[in-house]
Amino acid sequence: MAFNIDNLLIKKVRRVVFTDTASGDIYFNASEIENPSLNITSENTQKTDALGVPVATFYNGDSAEFSAENSLFSLGILAAQFGSDIEQASADNKIVTPCVETIKVKESSPGVMNEKITLKHVPIGEKGSEIPVIYILQKNKALGKKYVVGAAKSATAFTVEAADKTITLPTDSEITKDTVIFVSYEYEAESAVKVDKVSGNEPLSGKAIVHVIFCDPCNKQTEYAGWLVFGNAQLSPEVDLTFDTESTHPLSFTCQKEWCDEEGKLLSVIVPEA
Q: Is 163 helix (H, G, I), strand (E, B) or coil?
C-alpha cells in the first residue's frame, strides 16, 4: 500500500539550511530554531455584477515568507544577510583586530615601580606611534589624565616598543604602583574570523530547506522527518540584533517563483515515510 498521511503534529523545526542553487555550497546551517513561521499571501481580483455584488474571485500574485530566530548568534547567517563571506585569518591573511586593555602598574622590585607595562599583542601603525594615547583609568571607571606618545618619555609622554609589546610609562608622579592604565590599539590576528557589511551588497539568494519533525497524532512515538523546500529563496537584509544573553538571531526570506521550473513552484512540503 502506498504511503499516505494527512494529519500530523508539528513537534519542532530542527534546522534551516541555505544553499547555493548552482554549486550546492552551504551558506549556513541554522540548527537552533525558535518561532518559525510561514506566511503565504495572494492578491485577488473580484468580479461583481451590475449591483456591485461579488460573483467570482480570482487569485494571483502568490507570495510567501518564512521567518524564524536562531537561538544563537550566527556568523554564517549574518554573512548571508550581509551578502558576504566569512573571512578566516591565517599567517598569510592576518585580520586587523581592535584590542582594549586595562593594565595595572606593578613593581619591578620591592618598593620600585616598574616603568614599563606589557601588552598582550604587537600593536600596529606608524613605527614608534602605534599607540597614540593612553589614559589613567580612575576608580569610578572613567578615563582620567591623558598622555601622548613621544620620541622619549616625559611627564606628559610615553614611548612604544611594538616588537617587545611594551610601553614605557610617563614620568608623571600621578602614575604609581597599582595605577590602572587604559590602552586601545590594533594588532594583526592570525587566528580570527571577520564578516563585513559592504554598502550596496545584496543579501544572498538560493535554495532553502527547512527540516520539520512531525509526529503521528495517534502515536507520538512515530515521528516523520518532513521538509519545506524553497527552490528560489531571497534572504532579507533587514536584521535587528540585540546584544545580550537572552537575544536571538532573526532571519527571514521571501519565496520567489522558480522561473526555470515549468510548474513555477513557490515551495514544496515533503513528508517521506522513512
A: helix
> What type of residue is 189?
A
Cα 200 to chain centroid, rounded: 18
Mean pLDDT of the residues in the chain: 94
Q: Is 160 helix (H, G, I), strand (E, B) or coil?
A: strand
Neighbours of 225 (CB within 10 A): 14
DSSP 164: G
Domains of the chain: 9-86+197-270 (2.30.110), 95-193 (no CATH)
pLDDT tens digits for range 63-86: 899 999 999 999 999 999 999 999
Closest CA to 19 of 232, 228, 257: 232
CA distance 229 to 225: 13
Contact 247, 241 (CB under 8 A): yes
Rounded to whole angstroms, the Cα distance separating 183 from 166 reads: 11
Query: Long-range contacts made by residues 110-114, C-beta under 8 angstroms, separation at least 24?
Result: 113/175, 113/176, 113/177
Q: How many CB atoms lie within 10 A of CB 89?
A: 17
Q: Is the pLDDT of residue 1 over 70?
A: no
Q: How far apart are CA 141 and CA 135, in angstroms?
A: 11
pTM: 0.86
Contact status, residue 224 vs residue 8, Cβ threshold 8 Å:
yes
Category of 172 on φ-ψ map: left (φ > 0), alpha (ψ -120 to 50) or beta: beta
- Burial readout 171-203 (b: 16 or more C-beta within 10 A, e: otherwise): ebeebeeebebbbebebbbeeeebbeeeeeeeb
Alpha-carbon separation of residue 59 from 44, 47, 56, 115, 168 (angstroms): 4, 11, 10, 79, 75
